[in-house]
Amino acid sequence: MDQQIQQAISIFESAVAAVQPRRFMRACLTEDTVLGETLPASGRIYVLGAGKAAASMAKEAEEILGDRITQGFVVTHQPTPFHLKKITSIIAGHPVPDLNSLIATTTMLEVAGGIHPDDVVIFLLSGGASSLLADVPHGASMEEVQQLFNSLLKSGANIQEMNAVRKHLSAIKGGQLAQKLSPAKVYTIILSDVPGDDPAVIGSGPTIPDPSTFADAWAVLEKYQIVSSLRDYVKQGMEGLLPETPKVLPNSVFTIAASNYTALNAASEKAAEMGFHTQTLPELVTGLASREGARLAQLAIDYKGPFPACILAGGETTVQVKGSGRGGRNQELALAVGIQLKDAPHITFLSAGTDGIDGPTDAAGAIVSADIMQHAPEDPLSYLANNDAWHFFESAGSLIRTGHTHTNVMDIMIILLQKPVNSY
């Protein structure tokens, strides 16, 4: 394997390691405190959670609190290599909810119904909770909810827009779980996977006040021309026939325990150790993957600083699915970059999801260079047009496969640059 490819992968692995729950949970939770406040000496403590990192966060909570936990329940998306002792876990569907998503919501609400005012609830929230904790509006079907989730995912809508809709089709999202737990105190420890680290957006914020409205949800459906029978449900909310999500939750507090910036800082430190001159782009990379790929490639080509260099970026692009291929946003981004780099042998580019999974594929992302592009399938533009980056990179042998990492803080992009042969 090319040295620069190995270096890019090592930098990415350092980024993922920095956002594992064992690195951040103990800064938020001790045997006697949570988010800096003292836990009751004799009160009951409940641990709930949802998201891709929920089980691994729960494992750390068990190790810290031990028998102080009265009861716990979390929902995540993949089996874990460890066993929880005090906290029950369930596997549910992602990125589209399934029957287990409904069971998880029902179970969560049943636990909430048994909590007393003087109890403490520690909620562990990470990306993916929007699908893992799902319910069906009165009069609708599970199939209709799944179809709407699919339409949102393929529309090109960003995560803020998608979750504005999801929160207003639910009785648990958008702060409604905390509302049902009130007046018990709720402490939410959050692993952020959204641009801007807005707690109301992460996992559709079950325990966070929700500034979005039914009107916002309707605007998203209109903007992306999403036709669904659930539009009528949203319209009822706009007309005041349904309760709005809570805008204030006085008994709910939260912290962002780790984020994409945490991972980027670790990546920068690793690259510097390897001898790279590092810089991190100040703005998150968002927008359409194909468009952002062309921009990042040009940025690398135009680089005028010292060599060797490592340019880092974080974020989460979107894909407007028009073709019938297979792929994810990181693979599509890498392909768009690679198309521009075929004549730039001094540049290597990697883009991968910190959760280890990119779209409905078995890869976290892909790595690309001029050499990879020159030995890859012909006509990469046709693969890009067909949203078929997975097959392109599978043939090229440059998919990044990490397996599920049990964490999730969006995506990491790494550009490594050596001094061009013809530069002086």
Automatic annotation (TrEMBL):
Record domain MOFRL: where: 309-411
InterPro entries: GK-like_C_sf (IPR037035), GK_N_sf (IPR038614), MOFRL (IPR007835), MOFRL_assoc_dom (IPR025286), MOFRL_protein (IPR039760)
MF (Gene Ontology): glycerate kinase activity
Annotated MOFRL-associated domain residues: 9-236
Keywords (A to Z) from UniProt: Kinase, Transferase
The UniProt record lists the keyword Kinase: yes
A GO CC annotation given for this chain: cytoplasm
Protein name, as recorded: Glycerate 2-kinase
